[in-house]
Automatic annotation (TrEMBL):
<protein>
    <recommendedName>
        <fullName>Lipid-A-disaccharide synthase</fullName>
    </recommendedName>
</protein>
<dbReference type="InterPro" id="IPR019994">
    <property type="entry name" value="Lipid-A-disac_synthase-rel_put"/>
</dbReference>
Length: 216
């Protein structure tokens, strides 16, 4: 699962003086669209309370990129070429081909996904999750993921996220980015939970050796 996460050198238009939060809304439409709407509402709250400069990048699938105009209309934002902008000038940039680059560059992840959340943890990232309306990423799923991945996951809320849960989550994001000791723990926990890259090659080699042994 940790293979093929090497950055390709995509230009994410990042300011080196600012932190970056990655948004992982999932991959299945319409759920990913609904998740991204929730995450964008959360991003607005984070921007309002943060004392640090933060930039936001979305790792989206192609089908979600096609929904950005409607998402912008729903939230009264503007959309142009993958850039979502609210009335206060807050910008969130979406990419459909830069998952590994976004994940590796992130200081924190807001995740409503399955495998992608697990990969983020494996890279040592702190992941904050909120329950969605499903059908996939619900509280039940997120809670099971929390038990699997340990301290790197922080789950806020026990029901589909409303404004109260989003506000609590924004506060948790602020606290997490300021907690250097916790961030160090996430680095260690990621490797312990998910292992190192190279698993696919080892599995393939094991199969080859097993087959060769039976044929000899």
């Amino acid at each position: 699962m940790m293979d093929n996460l090497t950055p390709r050198g995509v230009n994410l238009n990042l300011d080196s003086a600012s932190l970056m939060i990655a948004l992982l809304p999932g991959s299945r439409i319409p759920e990913a669209r609904n998740n991204l709407i929730l995450l964008l509402k959360l991003v607005e709250m984070i921007d309002q309370i943060s004392s640090q400069k933060i930039q936001f990048r979305v790792a989206a699938v192609g089908s979600l990129m096609a929904e950005l105009d409607q998402i912008a209309i729903c939230l009264n934002w503007q959309h142009q070429n993958g850039r979502l902008t609210n009335k206060n000038g807050l910008e969130v940039i979406c990419y459909s081909d830069s998952f590994a680059d976004i994940l590796n560059a992130a200081n924190l992840v807001l995740g409503m996904a399955g495998t992608a959340n697990e990969q983020a943890v494996g890279l040592g990232k702190p992941v904050i999750t909120i329950p969605g309306n499903g059908p996939a990423f619900t509280y039940r799923f997120a809670e099971a993921q929390l038990r699997l991945l340990g301290l790197s996951i922080q789950l806020i809320g026990t029901k589909p996220a409303d404004d109260s849960i989003l506000n609590q989550t924004a506060q948790k994001v602020k606290q997490t980015l300021e907690n250097t000791e916790y961030l160090k723990l996430c680095l260690n926990n990621g490797e312990q939970r998910m292992g190192k890259p190279g698993g696919s090659l080892k599995i393939a080699q094991f199969i080859i050796n097993s087959v060769s042994g039976k044929l000899s």
